[in-house]
Amino acid sequence: MVPYILCMILFLIGVYGIIAKKNLIKIVIGMVIIEYAVNLILILVGYRSGGAAPIITSIEGASREASTFVDPLPQALIVTSIVIGLSVTVLAIVLCLRLYEKYGTLDILHIRRLRG
Amino acid sequence: MKSEHLLPLFIALPLGAGFLIPLISLIREWLADVIAIITVSILVVFAMCRLSDGVIIYDVGGWTPPFGINLVEDGLSGLFHIIIAIVSFLIVIYSIGYMKRYTARSKYFCLLMLMIAGMNGVIASGDLFNIFVFLEIASISSYALVAFGIDREELEASFKYLVLGGLGSSFILFGIAFMYSITGTLNLADIARVLQRSGNSHMVQFISAMFIMGFGTKAALIPFHAWLPDAHPSAPAPISAMLSGLLIKALGVYCIIRIFFNVIGFNMSFSVVFIILGVLSMVIGALLAIGQHDFKRMLAYSSISQMGYIIFGLGLGNPLGIIGALFHLLNHAFFKSLLFLCSGAVEYATGTRDLRQLGGLWKKMPITSATCSIASMSISGIPPLGGFFSKLLIIIAAVQAYDTLGPTAYFLASVTVFVSFLTIVYFVKLQKMALFGALPEKLEKVHEVPASMWSVLIVLAAFCIAFGVMFPWFIGTLVEPAYQVMLETSEYIIKVLGSL
Predict the structure, then answer these.
(1) What's the pLDDT tens digit per position in B212-222?
(2) What value does the mean pLDDT take over residues B159-171?
(3) For chain A, which residues make up each domain, given as ranges?
(4) Which architecture does CATH list for A2-48+69-103?
(5) Residue B66, preceding bond cis, omega within 30 degrees?
(6) Which of B133, B163, B174 lies at the smallest CB-CB distance from A41?
(7) Phi/psi of residue B135, each to 5°?
(8) What is the ipTM of this complex?
(9) Residue B255 has what pLDDT?
(10) Among A54-68, B193-207, B225-239, which stretch is predicted with the lowest mean pLDDT?
(11) Pairwise CB contact (< 8 Å): B186 & A73
């Protein structure tokens, strides 16, 4: 239970970063923290304490129960989700760079032409 | 070729075209347009081919579900495939004329193709994680397309959209992680089977809340809508049409329908949540739209309001409400695309989209004005057009909901009528300020947009009229099969997995 709660705290730290920070880069870092928290939860779902790697080395020797294996599916999933997260982060940073070129600042209080 | 082998092509073709276009445009710039048109026309043909068939299931790599990945195409997916194919075909043709104002056309078409591939993937996918992956493909390309103009507003809107969209996606992934932990599977039909056996636990409620937040952000329902009024006006006009007409439906409404009707199972508590979200979006979206002076921003708020109608109709949960919602979705895809393309035509000809600087355009741009009026009449529910019938169905459904909701149903029905009135108000304002009234001196030299652009407007307007005049036929062939899929969770499981 404790790891889940810690993940939740990490998630909330990310949300705090997005809500409270005024710097574009810090907002992006907040997004990245959220993404890590979700990835950690996903990998915790498949974790089994004391579990073995899900590799069968020989057919006769497969005496180990399937239940002793760590679930490999979430690990495959987070590899995908890390790649997706990377592309979102890259796009966000590029937008920050362009915004800095246009406005000369990264402070969101000065970047607010859209309203209403 | 068996028709099930067509299904992966819905995703593979635009994805392949997306990567081919930047390469081939190195040889000749115009080849990008050719490839984009060929791809979307093939998609239209495929979507039409699929009209008559029943459920098609394609197991990727021959692995049978629940172990393998599968693509499922049933009535609901068919409806969305047809909408996406036709609207994106028309938008690509329009883009060829419109995008002459921008540089880097090949990159534009590349991102547009990726967006189409992502939306088709979300709709065809039969498991939860692939829905997430395709949703991200479509979202990321839309973030980039919103910023395509690389001006101050565009960049700011895109960043806002990216942060909120990314947060929404995180909530969806969060929900998927917990869904996997309680069911041990990711296949939609298998999840539905496990949940039917185990019953509705607190965990399922928690996951539902996550999904409503995540997909609600994608669908721009009112508490999660903040990105839409900035992102939709900032994008180039064809992309605004794409975002408002297709993306919020394919990523938001489709996923909500599939997950809450086919997987988790619709019940009273979801009904209440959807009705509240729907009514809030309807009323607040319409009220905010009235005060706008930017052509596209008004349309963006109107999108929020119309999405409210759809979610409200779904939330009522009775047959008429669901059919009305699906029919309204079909209508909205066409008339909102048309309105955004009209705003693009006006901006193309006059160089502004501020309503206060426009006026009297019907003399100078007769085709744009006529089609814009048809779309406005349809969206505000003037009788012979499609929007009237879908709104009428939703209002009747709200009155019929008396059985489940009690006197609140009459209140909800009157709110729906009131919002319909507000819709007329802001579209009359739009017509009066942009199309009628005195022509400002600056705009004396304005003339009609090129034929490749106005022909698209005419086709979309013809669809708007056809939806009204022939509405029983459209409901029978497109909406009814989709409704049948939503009705029965067990049917979906049996069709995909073979048994309960």
Answers:
(1) 999 999 999 98
(2) 93
(3) 2-48+69-103
(4) Orthogonal Bundle (1.10)
(5) yes
(6) B174
(7) -60, -40
(8) 0.92
(9) 94
(10) A54-68
(11) yes
